Model the fold of this input.
Amino acid sequence: MSGGASVEETLELWASSLRGIKERIRPLFTQERVAASAARFLDVLLGNEPRKTGWMRAEAAGDPGPWRQQALLGRGTWDADALRDIVREYAVEQLCDDKAVLVIDETGFLKQGKASCGVARQYTGSAGKITNCQIGVFAAYVSDKGHAFIDRALYLPKAWTSDSARMRAADVPETVGFATKPALAVEMIERALAAHVPFAWVAADSVYGVGDIEAVLRHAGKGYVLGVNANHWFGSWCAKPLIAGEAKHIAAGLPKTAWKRLSAGQGTKGESL
Done:
């Protein structure tokens, strides 16, 4: 391949990087067999299989059945938050930029049953409706060099946190109580700040445009672009002239020259403006 590395060189670079990542996470596992299962699990996640069920992951990993990886995910003793910190550290090393953006968003994981931790009938943008699902809140680090997830939190509805028996059955720690999605976002932002993750802005949709997020970012000296609902009330006592009212009325009163159309990239139906 002219003008760049050969296929063999590229594959070796990928393989070397993957070995380095496995070495980073190795101290999380006290038993060699569990560490080996974790390494194979990572290999399978990066594989080409379109569906990664337990049996399919086991087959791709060369295991006789799914129980080794089930043990890793369900019964193994290792610190998931420590793994989160390792992932964050690695991502920031690769993508570090003082002008980076921390993006907060949620996604739903559709489920059929009632036993999965946090599952309930709730709205998810993944399906565009209220349906049976789990909701995860995520933080992604975005710079000119790329983007990667660096934090996550499982949203537990009140139907779960108010049912102690159900929480125990799902092995939820007793210290975990109800937290709104904005509260989970605040925790992730504060973790990023405590870890000295370099970023200039936080962006999130209207789910996170209310509550304590703005105050936390103001105190930290970070910029933010947070969506709000049309009926959100704004009051500015410093601006001249004074600005006060619902978002929709303030927006409607702005001249056309105040607006600039920007591209959010290519979507399934063309450019998103």
